[in-house]
Write a structure and sequence with these properties.
InterPro entries: DHC, Dynein_HC_stalk. By secondary structure, the chain is mainly α. The protein is 89% helix and 0% strand. The chain has a single domain, classed as Up-down Bundle (Histone Acetyltransferase, Chain A). The N and C termini lie far apart (107 Å).
């Protein structure tokens, strides 16, 4: 429930308060607390692990954000690359059509020259 949520994701203020009040105390460790209370020892170990985990998440968060940004950029770049590749294919198809049209025009020009030469020869 609610208490579990607090411990699983302590806010920065709670985390700092716990560090200041407990973690900075050299006697706040598993061995000492477990010696005093076998029931509290594992809870202290768990609480310390949760704080360490929260600190690690806080340190990793900028990297996760950067990774997400890079993945988004990569997706955008891939989309742009696909668009450019499609444009290249379209341009290559246009060039091929223009080459065919040019070849037809050249052959027509050759035929006209041949007809002209035949007319001049008569």
């Amino acid at each position: 429930g609610f208490i579990l949520t607090l411990f699983l994701r302590p806010s920065d203020s709670i985390r700092e308060k716990m560090k200041k009040n407990y973690m900075s105390n050299p006697s706040y460790n598993y061995e000492q607390v477990n010696r005093a209370s076998l029931a509290c020892g594992p809870m202290v170990k768990w609480a310390i692990a949760q704080l360490n985990y929260a600190d690690m998440l806080k340190r990793v968060e900028p990297l996760r954000n950067e990774l997400q940004k890079l993945e988004d950029d990569a997706k955008d770049n891939k989309t742009k690359a696909e668009e450019v590749e499609q444009m290249i294919r379209d341009l290559e198809a246009s060039i091929a059509r223009y080459k065919e049209e040019y070849a037809v025009l050249i052959s027509e020009a050759q035929a006209i020259k041949a007809d002209l030469a035949a007319v001049e020869a008569k």
